[in-house]
Design goal:
Rossmann fold; five-stranded parallel beta sheet; globular; 2 domains; 14% strand; alpha/beta
């Protein structure tokens, strides 16, 4: 292929964990000299909206704020060869526009698949309250959008399988690639020694404290481990009153140096989440040579391989969580082995310096195919 410049747009959600994804994607995409990148970050945090929008009812204010943020990117659609979308509203608008005129290649990058079976999908609490007809409407909308998407780049193979089965998308349009971690930042110290001074340290990271299983973890810790370990909570929603040997941090940012140091100081990451599609925290822990205890929801078992890079326990199962924590606290050699396996897994499959060029290669290939 002749050397040329591609013009790519990126309209991406940057709320909570997706902020890290955006930062990593942007950093490594802008190193590709073939691409002219245009970035449109969108947050769902209404408190960042102009004051005039905050007087609207909550749901309307949120949609208005999202629309206002995504418009700069959508106004430039005619300039793009391809646009990557990780935002439901922007994807819906772009698909609708394809009925009016030929536009850029639409690339969907997402961690969520269509909800075909509510009983098995890891729905978030606010989704559980929605009536069945709303899920059915959204499923029909997902299928309508999927027909006009040129390529899907889901964060996980789990998500890719849902898109294939739920939206009848051919496998050759699905490319599961996680953006990955910035390993120029996430560099672990030397491997931990089997014998360390002081109490072993458990680490929990997750702002949605209840959904991520923080309450259950504190309960288990207070009941079984308060005298034999420390628990460190990185969570803006952590309770104000906590048992002894429990420490809370409420102001860490993505890729925060203090967070990286905390990972380096701890021994096991525990994330007993009840609903997640994938887990940045598990990736960060593995990058820092820490074993992970998490649950069998979403794509997490793809990241945390049970018995290899950590332990998978049944969500909400207090006894299983207790046994998993006890097993790793009592076995330093297993912790070290799992930590080393986790780091190797990150370097192979979740390295942003490798995965972002792979993502961009998919986008370039789609553009080249359309040109031919």
């Amino acid at each position: 292929m002749d050397r040329r410049t591609y013009v790519f747009g990126f309209v991406l959600c940057t709320t909570v964990g997706n902020r890290t994804r955006y930062v990593n994607l942007r950093k490594y995409a802008e190193r590709d000299l073939q691409i002219e990148c245009h970035w449109t970050p969108v947050t769902h945090v209404v408190t960042a909206a102009p004051k005039i929008l905050r007087f609207l009812p909550g749901a309307i204010a949120l949609r208005a704020w999202i629309t206002l943020q995504m418009m700069p990117g959508l106004r430039r659609l005619g300039r793009f060869d391809a646009v990557m979308l990780h935002l439901f509203e922007a994807e819906t608008v772009c698909v609708a526009l394809t009925y009016l005129r030929r536009g850029p290649a639409l690339i969907s990058s997402t961690d969520e698949g269509p909800v075909v079976d509510r009983s098995t999908y890891p729905l978030y609490p606010h989704q559980l309250t929605k009536p069945a007809w709303r899920h059915q409407f959204r499923l029909r909308l997902d299928r309508w959008r999927a027909a006009r998407i040129c390529a899907f780049i889901p964060f996980s193979a789990w998500c890719g399988r849902l898109i294939e089965a739920g939206c009848a998308v051919p496998q050759d349009r699905i490319f599961p690639i996680h953006v990955g971690l910035d390993l120029e930042i996430w560099t672990p110290p030397a491997p931990k020694a089997a014998q360390r001074t002081g109490l072993p340290k458990l680490l929990f990271v997750g702002n949605d404290f209840v959904r991520k299983g923080g309450e259950l973890l504190v309960k288990v810790f207070e009941k079984h481990f308060i005298d034999v370990a420390e628990l460190h909570l990185v969570a803006a929603q952590a309770p104000a009153q906590l048992p002894r040997n429990v420490h809370a941090y409420r102001d860490f940012a993505p890729n925060d140096r203090r967070l990286i140091q905390l990972y380096a100081d701890c021994d096991v990451v525990v994330l007993p989440t009840t609903a997640d599609l994938h887990s940045w925290v598990a990736l960060e822990a593995m990058a820092m040579r820490l074993p992970v205890i998490s649950t069998n929801v979403g794509a997490i078992p793809e990241i945390v391989r049970d018995g290899v890079t950590g332990l998978i326990v049944e969500k909400g199962n207090e006894d299983a969580l207790t046994q998993g924590i006890r097993r790793l606290l009592n076995d330093a050699e297993t912790r070290i082995r799992m930590g080393n396996e986790g780091r190797a897994e990150i370097e192979r499959n979740f390295n942003a310096s490798i995965n972002v060029p792979r993502i961009l290669a998919v986008m370039k290939s789609v553009v080249d195919s359309r040109s031919r």
